[in-house]
Design goal:
One of its GO terms (cellular component) is plasma membrane. This is Nitrate/nitrite transport system permease protein. By secondary structure, this protein is an all-alpha fold. The protein has a domain of about 190 residues: MetI-like fold (Orthogonal Bundle), CATH 1.10.3720. Helices cover about 80% and strands about 0% of the residues. The chain is built from eleven helices and two strands; from the N terminus they run H-H-H-E-E-H-H-H-H-H-H-H-H. The longest helix has about 40 residues.
């Protein structure tokens, strides 16, 4: 029979023992299980939609009396295997594999996109911080921004006299405005108290820009970069159809002239896949940028 002293000691020991709280672990396990179920459901829906699309495609093209113009899934698959087998073919300037066409397009896009970013970000920071300069340049921006990038192509050919440089120039014009406008908007959204505090601490202009303004504007800049890169990839295909040379646009146009529609479908899939990867790369960068 326990005495009151013994009971008090037992209560004290029980109170001092660490309690293992399994509630957070259970919640984590349920959340993990839910994510796994969602992943399986998403994958299953994708497979169903994909197979349904292939089935409808087959029904829509099989048996058509069009001289083979309508590409069937089977013909497109066979052509894909052929193109992969000769992807790295390099037999003269005109007879090259799909890899070199894709590489040429990516190089043009990255060059034009990079030049646009180098110019648009500093200019956007300047216009965002100076009301006078912004009001002076805004009419030009609003007039030029809606112009289709392809409208600059004839002017580029006339002035640059080089198809490669013209394609890069068109990409530059396509990527410039999304980055510029997004940067200006990002600067306008910065809390003025941050800049006033930096001024009160008697920091120089360089410190205010790189330590206060740029980090606060970075999320908007990355958003503009993402939009600009997607726009640039859209425009390059159309530009290459006109300027010629290597590139996915030129490849698609040549295959159309040869009435090789399965190759066109394969090229469309490749263009879409690369565009998706480019967008995902900027999206990953966007996740790393801290929200202001």
């Amino acid at each position: 029979m326990s005495t009151p002293t013994t009971q008090a000691a037992e209560i004290t020991d029980t109170a001092q023992k660490p309690h293992t709280n399994t509630a957070p672990e259970a919640l984590q396990q349920r959340a993990k299980a839910q994510r796994t179920r969602d992943r399986f459901q998403t994958t299953g829906l994708f497979v169903i939609f994909f197979l349904g699309f292939i089935g409808l495609w087959h029904l829509a093209t099989v048996g058509l009396d069009d001289g083979g113009l309508a590409p069937t899934p089977g013909a497109t698959w066979d052509r894909l295997l052929e193109m992969l087998g000769t992807a790295f073919l390099l037999d003269g300037p005109n007879n090259v594999g799909i890899f070199y066409h894709l590489l040429a397009s990516i190089q043009r896009v990255l060059l034009g996109f990079g030049l646009a970013a180098i110019i648009a970000v500093p200019l956007g920071l300047l216009l965002g911080t100076s009301r006078v300069i912004h009001d002076g340049m805004d009419p030009f921006i609003q007039i030029l921004r809606p112009v289709s990038p392809l409208a600059w192509l004839p002017l580029g050919l006339a002035l640059l006299r080089d198809s490669q440089m013209t394609a890069i120039f068109v990409i530059f014009m396509a990527a410039l405005w999304p980055i510029l406008v997004s940067t200006i908007d990002g600067v306008r959204r910065v809390n003025p108290l941050f800049l006033d505090l930096a001024k009160s601490l008697e920091t120089d202009t360089k410190t205010r820009v790189f330590k206060v303004l740029l980090p606060a504007t970075l999320p908007a800049i990355v958003t503009g970069l993402r939009t600009a890169l997607s726009t640039a990839w859209l425009v390059i295909v159309a530009a290459e159809m006109i300027v010629g040379g290597r590139g996915m646009g030129h490849f698609v146009w040549n295959e159309w002239n040869a009435l090789n529609t399965p190759s066109i479908v394969v090229a469309i899939v490749i263009i879409g896949g690369v565009g998706f990867l480019l967008d995902r790369s900027i999206a990953q960068l966007q996740r790393l940028v801290p929200k202001s």
